[in-house]
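Example record used in the benchmark description.
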Amino acid sequence: MAETLTLTPSAAKRIAWIAGKQTKPAILRLSVEGGGCSGFQYKFDLADAPAGDDVVSETDGVKLVVDPISLDLVGGSVVDFVESLGGAAFKVENPQAAAGCGCGSSFGI
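Model output (structure tokens):
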């Protein structure tokens, strides 16, 4: 499994904008929780700082951090920000996901 994570420039720009509005550092935490219609769901939060055991990826000065347990489920993923007629959202392209749901926020391994 690749333990790399990629944050697209589009996602980095949106995170920087959100962090600026909330006067927080431009650090997005991606974690995985049990639940959702496919077994696991992605959770996004702004973080104040990376934890000591986090894997950190950086794009355009914006950091994406993931804890080791979640990394087992999202290693190799690309986090993007997409806007369409249906709305705007962060999207995870997870090569480990064997199943997903229509909303794109949950997945199965």
